[in-house]
Amino acid sequence: MNELALAAFAAATGTHLVGEPRDRRFAVFVRRFDAASYRETLSRAGVRWYPRTAREFPPLLRSIHDPPPGLFVRGSADVDLLRRPGVAVVGARSCSPYGAQVARMLGRELAAAGLVVVSGLARGVDGEAHRGALEAGGATVGVLGCGVDRDYPAAHRELAARIRESGLVVAEYPPGVEPAPWRFPARNRIIAGLSAATVVVEARERSGALITADLALEEGREVLAVPGEITSALSAGTNDLLRLGATPLTTSKDVFDLFGIEVGPAGDPDLSEDGKQVLARVRDGPAGGDELVRATGLDAGAVATALTELELAGLIAQGEGVYRAN
Amino acid sequence: MLARTITHAVVGLDARRVEVEAHLQRGVPGFSIVGLADRACQEAKHRVRSGITSAELEWPMRRITVNLAPAGLRKEGSGFDLPIALSILVASGQLPRDRLGGHAAVGELGLDGRLRPVGGVLAVAEAARRAGFERLLCAAPSAPEAALGGIEPVPVRHLAEAAAYVRGEAEPEPYASSNGHGPEAEPEPRDLDLADVRGQERARRALEVAAAGGHNLLLAGPPGTGKTMLARRLPGILPPLDAQEALEVTRIQSVAGLLDPERPLVMRRPYRSPHYSASVAAMVGGGPGIRPGEVTLAHRGVLMLDELAEFQRPALEALRQPIEDGEVAVARAAGRAVFPARFQLVATMNLCPCGARGDPAAECSCSPQRLAAFRDKLSRALLDRFDLVLAMPRPRAQELAAGPAEPSGAVRARVESARGKPSAEWAPAAEALLDRAVERVPLSGRGRARTRRVAETLAALASVERIESSHVAEALSYRAPRELESS
């Protein structure tokens, strides 16, 4: 079976195919297809191609019921990255500051523990998860729902470039395929398929992230959901997953346990007296800067100093002027 | 029969010498003005004619030609009325020829012959003094302003009074402001006071730091958190203008026609808050003539942009050069001018188009695309110009109940003492923290320089000689939050 011709044919006809069609047009296409020159074009564009029959093709992805004909891969990392234990971190594009913070924290902590963070390069949760992994100097894989050469969304051009520096950007579609809404659920099956576990950070009802979770469940992979506020529509999807039996994720340790990773408790680094005081208050619950000034009795300048100290130590994060403990 | 008076035409913020020549000849009676005069200047014909008649002087029934030289310079406005009238009166022999030496004149005539003040008298007076003139005939309310220019004003209320002065019959009475006090006696209206702002400790601190270092400040948060209220109180904690600055501001306000005749010398720092529909020309200056824009009107003061993200992108981008250079060069068909524009920028904005972000009680309804467009509008380059950025979440009820706060006067005292401090040296630990932050945050080159500046201001505010890591840490807390960066 000629997987490369199949992928090129699907791209040329604007269809989604995982198996050879009984179609005269395909037969004609295959006869005319010049695999050598197509490969040549690919390698000139810096794109590698791994058919699903190849040894390098990630076995987890091969085992799903409709694996793609192959993967187009860009990036400087070795393709073996795709065989390492991966965790998908997915969620809403228009996430809340809470969602953004959790996604980045997970990205950072999972990558630091040696797990590969897999996500969809979308805005919101996806982007934050990738950024967190990059922050930790870890490996991350971005899965595109369009041609592997496309910068989609355009705002993530730079992020995608940074991912390619140390990780991989992959897609089942060859260069040139434009993004289309119907391709994204197909992309989600690859995210779920590449990962041993899927974490949903924030999702509305009927969110794309829930499709990823469903696909993961169908393949018998682990699904975790981050509990959210019951009053927030952005948490409706994740809270539904929890009701259906997904594992609640409250710390990265919940993921580590699945992989049998032992992480020693990290003691708080040396903090100033002001820093300790501010941290204690933030750990009680999210607080704005002015609340911290009043709760600690410190002046605004001292609180600002302490907040930066805690932020640089990775103990708290700010979103929309509100500080939360990591 | 030819006569000549001298006046000065305002070009940008400077004044150029203009000779007003009047020539009377035999022929069909008529009146024409030549020499690139604009509409207001052409209409001088009617005002001068009625003015001369109302002053019980005679309108010469001759063919009158008035030339405004140099003919290549575009002349605007109504300040030429008085010199035109004087030239005609001299040319027709109603005033002596030799008495106007050493005098310049400026002023608009009413139909009843009364003299009205015009804008830019300070610039005219300064130019006249530089050109060696000793006295300036001007409308009485303009006299204090002319005196600031270092020239002796001749305050005239009516054309008849001017004629009497030129004939040597009477010296006009000195000008006293309408409320009977000298111009200096008038107390300045009180600035808005910071004591009215409850809570908002972090924003108050940021405002104080901004004032102490002349830093640009951006306040971001949902509507109703007091962003505008705080920004309006910045002029009140800035040190007063020094003599040189006061003259600069007065010159600008005089040309823009914003000067209060009761208070000729501007002592208050200007506060300009243009509406977000402002065009590029309104912002940096321009128009058919060359008028100073908001950046110049805010010179030595505060330019406040409320709802920053609502401004047109070109108008915002046009701000970058004046922020960097402290002046703005405006080129138009009418000529070219360089306006001073050393202002402090304060801006407020919501965290998203619908305004709900940062408000725990509301849910943002903005689509990701709309949000991205909103953030893209604030280019990295513009956001980088704000030394201090503070996200202000909505305060809770208990915070509003906070006790009365420190008044502006106390804050201003600290600001003034910090402004005089020499620059401090850097402790090694502070440098190390900054290096670490550049990698961790991450910080651009401009962001790094910005953090350094703010840290220096913080040390000056604390009256210490060394910049410690605590100052750098506080400075880092005023950087743009991720939500405002396009992601």
Fold and architecture overview:
The complex is a heterodimer of chains A (326) and B (487). Chain A is α/β, with parallel strands linked by helices. Chain A folds into two domains: 79-259, Rossmann fold (3-Layer(aba) Sandwich), CATH 3.40.50; 273-325, Orthogonal Bundle (Arc Repressor Mutant, subunit A), CATH 1.10.10. Helices cover 43% and strands 14% of the residues of chain A. Chain A is built from 14 helices and twelve strands. Chain A has helices spanning 3-13, 24-32, 35-44, 59-62, 97-112, 125-135, 157-166, 184-194, 208-218, 236-243, 253-259, 273-284, 289-296, 300-312; strands at residues 48-51, 70-74, 86-90, 116-119, 140-143, 168-171, 197-200, 222-225, 247-248, 287-288, 316-319, 322-325. Chain A has a nine-stranded mixed sheet, with helices on both faces. A three-stranded antiparallel sheet of chain A has the order 10-12-11. In chain A, strand 3, helix 5 (97-112) and strand 4 form a beta-alpha-beta unit. In chain A, helix 5 (97-112) packs parallel to helix 6, helix 6 packs across helix 7 and helix 8 (184-194) crosses helix 9. The longest helix of chain A is centred in the N-terminal third of the chain and has 16 residues, at 97-112. Chain A starts with a helix and ends with a strand. With 487 residues, chain B is of the alpha/beta class. Chain B has three domains: 2-167, Ribosomal Protein S5, domain 2 (2-Layer Sandwich), CATH 3.30.230; 194-420, 3-Layer(aba) Sandwich (Rossmann fold); 421-487, Helicase, Ruva Protein, domain 3, CATH 1.10.8. Chain B is 35% helix and 19% strand. Chain B has helices spanning 39-42, 44-54, 81-91, 121-130, 143-148, 159-167, 201-213, 227-231, 243-255, 280-284, 294-297, 313-317, 320-325, 368-377, 380-383, 397-400, 408-419, 428-440, 445-461, 469-476, and strands at 2-11, 14-25, 30-34, 63-69, 103-105, 108-109, 115-116, 135-139, 152-156, 217-220, 271-272, 285-286, 291-292, 302-305, 327-332, 335-340, 344-349, 388-391, 425-426, 466-467. In chain B, the strands form seven sheets. Chain B has a five-stranded parallel sheet with strand order 11-14-17-10-18. Chain B has a four-stranded mixed sheet with strand order 1-2-4-3. In chain B, a hairpin with a 4-residue loop joins strand 12 and strand 13. The radius of gyration of chain B is 27 Å and the shape is elongated. The model of chain B is unreliable at 179-186 (pLDDT under 50). At the A-B interface, helix 13 and helix 14 of A face helix 7, helix 14, helix 18 and helix 20 of B.
